[in-house]
Design goal:
The protein has about 400 residues and is an alpha+beta fold. The protein has two domains: about 270 residues, Zn peptidases (Aminopeptidase); about 120 residues, Immunoglobulin-like (Sandwich), CATH 2.60.40. The chain is built from nine helices and 19 strands. The strands form three sheets. The protein has an eight-stranded mixed beta sheet. A six-stranded antiparallel beta sheet has the order 1-2-5-11-7-8, with no helix packed on it. Helix 7 links the parallel strand 17 and strand 18. It starts with a helix and ends with a helix.
Length: about 400
């Protein structure tokens, strides 16, 4: 009942004044988001014989130990930053060789602590920028999926192996600056994480009606961030972009957990906390910085928030949406949007999972704080980039057309 009363109060405030005060919120299923003890991996280079090294000395790496059996066989171990934790076993390491390497391949067995299972199909890169999936003939997964074995051909002097393509905080900063070359976009930093990394921000458009977008609360969820990239590309380069961005603006926070991303965490920030459970009391600096900036910007620029989107990854494509019974502002948008997406992608059907206000996640916060729909846009771990681009482009175009028609 308390959260319903809080929601009604926000609705009254929104109706009677343009100013919205940042509030703490009571959710039925609260989560303790105070700092937790954490284990930081040791950055280290492991010699494998005389001519091969394996290391984790780069942003986004995760390799907590390496056991060398011989010059062509090693066991790599990855453990989470702390527990309890979602089963998203992240791994990322680099293999460097000299031209004197005695063999043309090396076998790496990836091992996880008991109770965790292999989740991500390995990706390979020779420059840390261009990635492809490991060929199925080079991968063996144990029957109980508790380990994976890779046979890696040493065809280059540097080879990166990772659970997903590595997109570090620097990569996001570079992408943001490139996007800001568009006349509609401005890039900035709104503060720093617990470990002092920049929290990037993009403002796209000049209108007063506003959409808030967040991403990368959980480090391994790379496909969700890729979806955001394609989504924004379409927002900025569509025949109706100019019209839309005169009436609307997007406040985008593309990397909420830069520490977790660069430290190679499975899920949490540098304080050992799931950021997407801290949208109530704002105990973690990353969440506090983003919500404070968003509310202050809405007030300072007299904006009217219409919608909140949060881009994630999970096992399959799905949208976690606001239960329609909550009767937020602009609630009809969600169903119209899904109808548009289905109508414009042959054979595609939206998987919609509505829920009420339960846990202190971003989706519920948009409802409680602004009385607008919150949608968690989830992309599958293995969804192809080709389909991510198609769906994100259609979704962005549909969003613009539906909102302009209102």
């Amino acid at each position: 009942m308390k959260y319903r009363i809080a929601l009604l109060l926000v609705a009254v405030i929104s109706a009677s004044s343009c100013r919205v005060e940042l509030q703490q919120h009571q959710f039925p299923n609260p989560v303790d988001t105070t700092d937790k003890e954490i284990s930081f991996q040791e950055k280290k280079t492991y010699p494998v014989g005389d001519f091969i090294n394996i290391d984790n000395e780069f942003d986004g790496a995760r390799l907590t130990n390496l056991v060398v059996h011989n010059e062509t066989l090693v066991s790599a171990f990855t453990a989470p930053e702390n527990e309890p934790i979602n089963s998203s076993p992240w791994y990322a390491f680099r293999i460097t060789t000299s031209e004197n390497a005695i063999d043309d391949s090396i076998t790496v067995k990836i091992n996880y602590p008991e109770k965790y299972k292999h989740r991500y199909w390995p990706k390979i890169s020779y420059d840390s920028k261009n990635w492809t999936q490991i060929d199925s003939t080079s991968l063996k997964i144990s029957g109980d999926t508790s380990a994976a074995e890779l046979k890696i051909k040493l065809v280059a002097d540097t080879i990166f192996i990772a659970a997903q393509p590595i997109i570090s905080s620097k990569s996001v900063a570079d992408w943001s600056q490139k996007l800001a070359k568009n006349k509609h976009a401005v890039a900035s930093s709104i503060g720093t994480s617990l470990k002092g990394r920049e929290i990037p921000h993009l403002k796209i458009g000049s209108g007063k009606k506003t959409i808030a977008i967040v991403s990368r609360q959980h480090p391994p969820e790379v496909t969700g961030f890729v979806a955001l990239q394609y989504f924004l590309d379409e927002i900025l380069d569509n025949e109706i972009s100019d019209e839309f961005l005169k009436e609307y603006c997007l406040l985008v926070y593309p990397l909420m957990n830069p520490d977790g991303v660069d430290l190679g965490h499975w899920r949490h920030n540098a304080a050992g906390v799931d950021l997407n459970r801290d949208w109530a009391y704002y105990r973690q600096p990353e969440v506090k910085t983003v919500v404070t900036h968003l509310v202050n910007t809405v007030n300072a620029e007299n904006l009217e928030l219409q919608l909140g989107l949060d881009f994630h990854s999970t096992w399959y494509d799905i949208y976690y949406t606001t239960d329609r019974s909550l009767k937020t502002k602009n609630m009809s948008f969600t169903d119209q949007w899904f109808e548009y997406i289905e109508a414009n992608i042959d054979g595609y059907r939206v998987r919609d999972a509505p829920s009420g206000l339960r846990s202190p996640v971003s989706k519920g916060w948009f409802v409680a704080q602004f009385n607008v729909p919150g949608i968690t846009y989830e992309i599958g771990d293995d969804t192809s980039h080709e389909f991510i681009k198609i769906k994100s482009s259609v979704a962005a175009e549909g969003l613009m057309k539906i909102l302009l028609a209102k």
